[in-house]
Amino acid sequence: MTTPAVQHAIDAAFREEWGRILATLIRRTGDWDLAEECAQDAFTEALRRWPVDGVPQRPGAWLTTVAANRAIDRLRRGARGVELLEQVGRDPTGTPRTTMDSHESDTDQGGGIEDDRLRLIFTCCHPALSLEGRVALTLRSLAGLTTAEIAHAFLVPEATMAKRLTRTKEKIAAAGIPYRVPPAHLLPERTAGVLAVLYLMFNEGYSASAGDQLIRAPLCSEAIRLARLLAALMPDEPEALGLLALMLLQHSRRDARLDASGDIVTLEEQDRSRWDLEEIDEARALLRGALRRRAPGPYQLQAAIAACHAEAPEPAATDWPQIAALYEVLLRLTPSPVVRLNRAVALAMAEDLDAGLALVDELAEQRALSDYHLVEATRADLHRRRGDRAAAIAAYRRALDAARTEPERRFILRRLAEQNDRP
Amino acid sequence: MNYVLFVWADGIPAPEAMEVMQRDLPAWIQEMDSRGVRLFGRELDLPETAATVRVRDGETLVSDGPFAETKEFVAGIDLFDCADLDEAIDVAAKTPVARFHPLEIRPVMSMALGERTSAFGRGDDSAGKPYLLAMWVGGAPAATFDERAVGQEGETWRADLEARGLHVMGARLQDANTATTLRVRDGDTLLSDGPGVETEGFIGGIDVVSCTDREQAIELAASHPVAGYHAIEVRPFWSE
User: Fold this and answer.
1) CATH code reported for the domain at B2-236
2) In chain B, what are the domain boundaries?
3) Residue ranges of E strands in B2-64
4) Residue A56: partners with Cβ closer than 8 Å, 6 or more residues away
């Protein structure tokens, strides 16, 4: 019988080892489906044996060996077995050996052997794959989510997700997408691509509507777990640290950002005692480590901005001049209307409401933002702060016309009511 | 691995684009030839020179114009021999054509290069005028068919043409799901999953034949087994 302790050991091993085992098997067999089946078999075998034999001292090594032996068995029976068998039995340094106990030789710290999971991440996030395929395959392969779990999180039928995963794997094989960490000249671009996939995954969970929050929240925790893995595998990449810090800072506010009815609560109005201090502290430490490398990037800058908010015990204590300066740098790296809008707000809050408002007016005139209601809502907010009620109401009305979702509309209506109620 | 590159166009290039391509193409060709990654590349004649051939109930049906009813058309074809998709992307991104046209990279399933391939690649058409036969598949076939049997008939067709000295090269391609489309904008390489243009079917294979005239090319297309189930677009390559 499976005791809770054994079940716990198996669950823990699954979370810790799934990606590693799969990544190694894919490298050695070149066959994603075979690798997946054998990794699954190894866990089934653990479920059978561990309750009887006890949990092995090194569960990862045990599982890897079982999965590898299973791969050898299957290949022996298969038609193209012999040639592949040779690859399976060979370790990455070219020394033949009897078992595939890669767990010991392929550990990521030092040793000069790249972690297979890094190869797996870069392959899953290859830019020639569809974006939705990249996200799904990363969740399946690295995080070990089942097809049903991924389908659930993306609110699509399981058959749709299964097809998406199959198609993505087929393209990797048929189009000759290499299973590797990209060479130096491609690395910066491809790393940015991996970070974008993880951040997209996080945002899918984070920006879910109130009704879908519970269903989609796992996407946030999986994205954080994967960002943590990536940061560990690429310790010299400050943007990986920056992304992890950014996710943690956003995640730290998860309990305060929606009210009881599921409506969005602005940063200013959030109950800061409900922020997760542990996550904030971890993020700040990560960010310090990243910034020390003096290679700023968009994720580090966004994290630094989020940290400015996190460090303020109350809204009035926010270091707006610092935030405005950070947006200035971010704007140079990633010039976009949203960044310009945020910089205008920071400037308004830092020193000069009128100057900030002038910048927002400029953006409104250019109609550069597709999310036009944001510009009008921001404009209204600045008028409100200046005490110009009539102008604020007019702008909120324009924002209301441009709002596209129900929560946006409710938020603006609430603001509008506040203005109208004022004496 | 081998990859076929389809150059998609939606008209005759603007004079400035033409100038840049003519200026920069020779250096690209030289670099890729010396790397050994480019097997050949040729421009096609304009789509109005095309004929689309079907055989139904034993009768050859020829319609003027290309198969796809889109504004976009395939304007040229290159064949690469690369280590993997990353190398194919690198090679494609470096051509000046990528700055002006979407390039579709499609993996080759199997191919046959003949004695005439290299002369064709050099633009030496003294043996006969080269025509592209593009097998448009993907939609519903006219009748159910045994893919394996048709594949074998295709091999026989090819062998027969080779014996008659009419075959230049042929390639069966992986399906459109495996395509990657590449564009270069402001120096950045942009990739997308899937074919360069959404069309009703997709090109499942190509053959290049060397003919005396268009009639012969159409006749050869009609004798290909795929013409009985799908459609074959016949188009001359551009020659000076």
Assistant:
1) 3.30.70.1060
2) 2-236
3) 2-9, 38-43, 51-56, 59-64
4) A50, A62
Task: Please report residues of A whose CB lies closer than 8 A to that of B193.
Answer: 128-130, 133, 171
pTM of the model: 0.89
SS3 for A319? coil
Supply the pLDDT for residue A277. Answer: 96
A172 CA to chain B: closest CA distance, Å? 8
Tell me the shortest Cα–Cα distance from B65 to chain A, in angstroms: 31
Tell me the residue length of chain A. Answer: 423
More confident of the two residues A100 and B70: B70
Measured between beta carbons, which residues in chain A are less than 8 angstroms from residue B3?
A: 176
Q: Assess whether pLDDT exceeds 60 at residue A106.
A: no
Indicate the angle between helix axes A59-77 and A32-53, nearest 10 degrees. 130
B205 phi and psi angles, rounded to 5 deg: -170, 160
Tokens of B204: 């499942």
Contact predicate A368/A353, CB 8 Å:
no
CA distances from residue B100 to B7, B77, B106, B188 in whole angstroms, order as listed: 10, 15, 19, 13
Other beta carbons within 10 angstroms of residue B85's beta carbon come to: 24
Amino acid letter, residue A41: D
Residue ranges per structural domain of chain A: 4-94, 116-234
- A4-94: which CATH architecture? Orthogonal Bundle (1.10)
